[in-house]
Design brief:
The chain has about 375 residues and is mostly helical. It is built from 18 helices and no strands.
Length: about 375
Amino acid sequence: MQFHATENLKHRVAIGAFFFLQGIVFSCWASRIPDIKQHLALNDAQLGTALLAIPLGQVCAMWPTGILVSKFGSRTIMTFGTFLYPLALVCIGLSNSLWQLVCGLVFFGLSANMQNISINTQAVDLESVYGRSIMAAFHGMWSLAGVTGGLLTTLLVGSGIGYKSQFAGAFVLAASTLVLCRRHLMPPSFERAKQQGRKIFARPDSLIVIVGFIAFACWCTEGCMFDWSGDYIKNVVRPDPALTRVGFVAFMTAMATGRFLADYLINKFGALKIIFAGGVLIFSGMGAAVAHPSFYVATIGFMMTGFGVSSIIPICYSIAGRSKNLPPSLAIATVSSIGFFGFLICPPLIGYVAYASSLRVSFGLISITGLVLALLSSKVGKLQKN
């Protein structure tokens, strides 16, 4: 099934808008973690336990969401996810205790997964129409939103506006995006045509499993940067208090820039070379931030890490979406299920290791994921040849 060029553009803009919205909602949470930690008087171990709730909710909902998308269509499931995701953010803002925060974060993870699987299914479907890599640019919209959200938080904090008001504003933005853009998403008939001949409960092949492990290694690094970069700058680097969020913004800026460049690089050099290069950048960038935690070195190291992770998850989803025995939503759900254990394990692990030793030790351990990515890229190449 093919569409007119104007229709393709409308689909691309609409899908990009939902990726941007997803990034705004997440960055509102991530950039406010230090404020919520201070408000609830949490130590590193307690915060690590709380952060476990998001990936726990996501992992529990991965396969059910994939099945729901296959049955009812990505447009329908994304509608629910787009409404519930910022609503969960509002619930987090209303938390006054650790257990309330944990409940809100589980809800946040569940709803994030609904939107994540469905919007990536939409992107994979449109990419198949274009016949070339466009997935990274969509994820670039997510990262651009992360930068925007981080900068917005900095301005709001400077203006004395609390996170509860910011979270409510994100909900209003989500409702507006849903009203304006939903009708321009990929039609359900296209998904049904692609799923013909594919079994919902087919066993994932070795390639999908290895791609899942690549996602796992990448998300270990992303989880570290999303949840702990602010604490690392604040408590290890110790710059002026106004600069504590610069590390997160630097990481998100580099990740956004890398994703907008990634489609060109993937189409020119191939996906596997880009994964290898990303692993090298992650190891080098995080290693530099650990070895010499000055403000400028740590910021540059976080930027290198952002460039390193930028294209890896889009590549994983693109490979999954081309699975020969699973519908795109189930293939993406399988990769996400394996990968999100990185989010499940690493943020609390960092908190526990930091509580027992230091954040520098934690970040040093996470830097090793870069080497894992470089090694697994060659494994994917061998499986694709077979």
